[in-house]
Amino acid sequence: MFDEPNKTNPPFSKGSSKYENPDGVKIGLEVHVQLNKLKTKVFCGCTTDYHNDPPNSHVCPVCLGLPGALPVINKKAVEAAIKVGLALNCKVEEHTQFYRKNYYYPDLPKGFQITQYDFPISSQGYVMIEGEDGEHRIGITRAHMEEDPGRLVHEGTIDKSKYTLIDYNRSGMALLEVVSDPDMRSPKEARRYLDKLRNILEYLDVFDGNLEGALRVDANISIMGGQRAEIKNISSHKGAERALLYEIVRQKNVLRRGGVVVLETRHFDEAREITLSMRSKEEAHDYRYFPEPDLVPLKISGWAPAIKETLPELPDARRMRFVEQYGIADDHAKALTSELKLAVFYEEVAKKADPKMAAVWICDVLKGELNYRDLTIDAFRKEHMLSVIELLASKKITEDGAVDIIRTLLDKGGSPEEIVAQKGLVVVEGDIVSTAAEEAIKENPQAVADYKAGKEKALNSLVGAVMKKTKGRADARAAREVLLGKLG
Amino acid sequence: MITKKDLEHMAWLSRLELSGEDTEKYTPKLNSVLDYFGELDKVDTEGVEPTYHVLQLSNVFRDDEPSQPTKPLSQEEALSNAPRKQDGFFKAPRMM
Amino acid sequence: MATINELRERIHAESSEEIVHEYLEKIAESKLNAFITVSGESALARARKIDSEGHEGPLAGIPIAIKDNISTKGIRTTCASKILTGYIPPYDAHVIERLKEAGAIIIGKANMDEFAMGTSTETSFYGATKNPWDIERVPGGSSGGSAAAVAGDDVPLALGSDTGGSVRCPASFCGVVGLKPTYGVISRYGLIAYANSLEQIGPFATSVRDVATLFDVIAGYDARDSTSVKRDVNYSSAMKNDVRGLKIGVPEEYFGEGTDEKVEKAVRDAIHKLEDLGASLKDVKMPHTKYALASYYIIAMSEASSNLARFDGMRYGLRVEDSDWHTTFSQVRAAGFGDEVKRRILLGTYALSAGYHDKYYLKALKVRTLIKQDFERAFKNVDVLITPTMPYPAFRLGEKIGDPLSLYLADVDTVPINLAGVPSISVPCGFSEGLPIGMQIIGKHFDEATILRTAYTFEENTDFHIKQPEGV
Predict the structure, then answer these.
(1) ipTM for the assembly
(2) Does domain C4-249+381-466 correspond to CATH entry 3.90.1300.10?
(3) Of A135, A206, C59, C362, which has the fewest CB atoms closer than 10 Å, so is most exposed?
């Protein structure tokens, strides 16, 4: 057993108030992660780069389950699985083995799935998430390797379709099934856990979350200590939250009507945002696990310590370092490290500009503008961020001007300098503000009188008048100060 | 002793439709074999490890290189034996 | 009957095309039902190509039959099952690639018990194969088509597969030589699995030398089979007429109750012959032998129940009218598998199922360990073990097929070898009322050379292998 705790794990503070969890919600997730940065599938030489190609165009006798074909383990897949195990603070097994899980399903070409059973490659780890009441620990039961089945396509919905189409391009992709303890207490926590998991996987460079089918979720959920339902076919973080919200309402309704929630598998219909019972006579599963005779055992002592040496800095560690190294707020550090690309973007800007200012403008402004437009950080150039911060730092533009530049860059493109020139956003000189303030006082006697009578708000209309006269190029705070000076 | 009910369950697990006649026919034959298998109860296997693999091989891997060691099939080859197909997909029955 | 060397000379003097044509005619006239598919056209085309272009391979231009559970690109492969109706593999097994490189010509696919589950080649969907020594009798199984074809001179060479005796049993019943190599010596890539942890592909021929030549061609490492072993051996160089100093172990457990007297006598005479030629005999104890059969069948059926799950009619093979997928799968499998296959799937499923896994499957694997240890102990003191291959000569068609257990009991002397993964060869060593008797020579892991040398020496000093069945 390799169980040295992750040294870079930050000491999280406990949340201040205790979350009540009124419905007694318990959620555990089984997340199927495709190790899609590998070049080939887990047991054969077929490419993982199939996403834009016709169905069944990247298959071979092995992943198609043709009679007589045999699997051979992709060494890089094992290394990637160990990486993830270590990043999830798991124990990594030194001796492990693949098993056959025997069951039938049209997407399963061999009538069994090669997976792990006893001695999964890693187990007993955890990740920290932002929970309902502060930092919350989600236990990782196990993370084991297995092969992906094919992809089923239905005409319309699964319950109405008259036939099923099968594409085996996905069959045999290396999967890591990350099974959590039932430690999530709300759909929101489930989503946060998924965000965190995806973030860690991207930091490890084993996974590209943007590819279709990259991350698929089965959710186990119970309320009030009742039986759990297993929800299958969840393919996005948002979907997980929706499916779980629906399921809580469904289970509450069952209880309200005096019924009992039964242990069952339900299918999430993403389009309708509902879960459907998959109950049929096969519910009594018996997977008849036994060691895959076509694969020999893995004796990988020494692998984990060596791989640990090569692990990149993970989100929590980077968050702590950002706080220490750049002196930025923890909230900003957390937001910046929640996505690998964002963290890299920030750090490149912070090296050449005021790091605190960079954190504020990236987290509080740029991120919001990107989210509003449903864009990622890829849509904004770091050189432009540097220019904006330089213009601000040298007081050449106002904060409003900076926001305007960022919006214009996202909507129309160009460069910050061009936008400043085109829109005349250069901050005006002090005497112009002074002249404008004098004019404003002269032209608004009522406001002046109100202010002097103690109505603080009246000052705002005077500031507004100054801004109007300077066409927004004055700094609002500066205008206010000048006005105060002139009003005595 | 395997009962008809056991047999029906095994048939379900292994997706083998058995008629009532089949069940009648198989049950005694399977039981005589199972009786014979019961002979193993006489062997003392206390402390004996199971032999899953007769050779002591471990750590057999392939490199993460395309087409190694198995070469891909063309879509046409992949579908060449499909009893039913449609638009490049294998066609399976309805799910529900 | 012609040997590889004789055929090479004839090919040189005449042509491969003529040889292939001659064998195709024999197959067409044969009463044995040894073939499921005859690939005459492609065989002739290949023969012509070799004739015109020349080929330096050790089997250049020589026809061979392939058991129908070995994947052959472009040639129908059925496992003698209805469920693989119409299946034409898009890829070649490793052994087929090797044979093609060596210049061999695949003349057809040999009959077998359905999915190699049997000891008589009677469970084939394509009808039973007949024993060339007596067409009222079985050829043995499951590679009965391969052995009968060689014994009946339908073909000079054949490949079979041996999970619990499926090469050696028909070799014994048909009076030819058949080898079950050490587990891992021949790649299983392309061998349609019955029981993965037990089986190996094996060669058939009418002489030990030809078996060794064929074995040299098909043995060797293959990166597509994780249980394939890297070894560099030239088996043909083991053809030495010399057993002086060889220590032979004779485990009495293999001569027990149920062994035919004439079989026992023939095998003991053969052992004494080897003693006369300079070998020495030793008694060895193999106390767990009587549990081998149960252990073997539990393991084989358990693995089979999983291996055969892929036959669902979606990607290849038989399909029935569609309803919901559960029903369609169940109906495809009910219509496609024969009774014996169904029984083994059901029993294997039972042996792995919750509540019975430890009692049957795990227990069988522990007993397997004890059997393996019996061999390890024995081989500390001896070089080879010699036993009967089968407890009796070929039985009559239909005689045992109605009683699965009695048929299983016929494998009593062959299954322990697969459990231990050691190599073993069956060579003709006598006759009982006109039916051949086989002697089984068992070796240490990877010591095929010694069993081949022992078999070769026996053959050089006896004439059992020269006798041929009449009228075929």
Answers:
(1) 0.97
(2) yes
(3) A135
